[in-house]
């Protein structure tokens, strides 16, 4: 079924379900920028998150490294999850998915190898302890197929040996251990930890967020895709952009009083 356009009215109705609010970061709370290191959380977005945090448990679930996303958001007392759910920290919770932890040395050394071998293309290779991301938004489009071919050649060995998994996002390739653990698991864990009978509301924009939507739907929560309605999503709602999302959240908070 096609998702419904989200407004603050839907959020007001959902408030009765004792929500836990979960947000992806890049592309959800902030627009995607050419190099992820340049991103900033706008003043109003931060105020809205602070406002939510005053009333509900709040969690940020990102593909970035946990430390990185915590610094970017900077709200105390929130839950943070990095590496697509692998790392989680927050009130009475500190967790690293154990199989991912075991792979961290291998992932880190593979990251070093990729930085060296892909240098001619100068992509942003971000080594995140438990996973790697290779950003190619700033690369001349005609060079991207060549970069991806070279990348595929470099990871073929570990991929065939079942030591890694590769997945593609928005102008980014992610490398992670082949562990069946994703944002949905982190959402389940945090929801359970945040208190009895709470329901998750999750906002996300990219392929890895679909795991979150699936879990949230199974838990009877609210799933919201952020972006133009042009691709298949499991989310039940959609909203066009981070700016529009922040606007509806602000109205929601205002009406809650
Ligand atoms: Mg995103």
Structural description of this entry:
By secondary structure, the chain is an alpha/beta fold. The protein folds into 2 domains: 170 residues, Rossmann fold (3-Layer(aba) Sandwich); 77 residues, Alpha-Beta Plaits, CATH 3.30.70. It contains 9 helices and 13 strands. Strand 11, helix 8 and strand 12 form a beta-alpha-beta unit. Bound molecules: magnesium ion. Magnesium ion binds next to loops.
How are the elements arranged and paired?
Blueprint: E1 4-5, H1 8-14, E2 19-23, H2 43-53, E3 58-61, H3 66-73, E4 79-82, E5 87-90, E6 93-96, H4 98-102, H5 104-117, E7 124-127, E8 132-135, H6 144-160, E9 165-169, E10 172-176, H7 183-193, E11 199-204, H8 209-218, E12 222-226, E13 237-239, H9 242-256
Helix pairs in contact: 1-9, 2-9, 7-8
The protein binds magnesium ion.
């Amino acid at each position: 079924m096609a998702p419904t356009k989200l407004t603050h009215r839907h959020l007001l109705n959902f408030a009765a379900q004792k929500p836990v609010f979960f947000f992806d970061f890049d592309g959800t709370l902030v627009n995607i920028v050419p190099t992820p290191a340049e991103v900033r959380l706008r003043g109003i977005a931060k105020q809205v998150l602070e406002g939510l945090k005053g009333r509900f448990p709040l969690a940020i679930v990102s593909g970035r490294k946990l430390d990185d996303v915590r610094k970017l958001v900077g709200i105390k007392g929130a839950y943070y999850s990095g590496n697509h759910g692998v790392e989680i920290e927050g009130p009475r919770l500190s967790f690293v998915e154990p199989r991912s932890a075991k792979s961290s040395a291998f992932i880190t050394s593979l990251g070093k190898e990729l930085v060296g071998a892909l240098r001619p293309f100068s992509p942003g290779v971000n080594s995140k302890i438990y996973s790697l991301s290779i950003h190619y938004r700033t690369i001349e489009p005609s060079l991207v197929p060549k970069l991806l071919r070279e990348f595929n050649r470099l990871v073929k060995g570990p991929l065939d040996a079942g030591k890694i998994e590769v997945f593609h996002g928005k102008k980014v390739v992610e490398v992670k251990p082949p562990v069946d653990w994703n944002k949905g698991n982190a959402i389940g864990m945090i929801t359970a930890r945040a208190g009895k009978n709470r329901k998750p509301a999750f906002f996300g924009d990219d392929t890895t967020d679909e795991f979150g939507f699936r879990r949230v739907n199974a838990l009877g929560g609210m799933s919201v895709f952020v972006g133009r309605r042009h691709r298949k999503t499991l989310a039940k709602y959609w909203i066009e952009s981070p700016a529009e999302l922040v606007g509806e959240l602000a109205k929601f908070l205002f009406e809650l009083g």
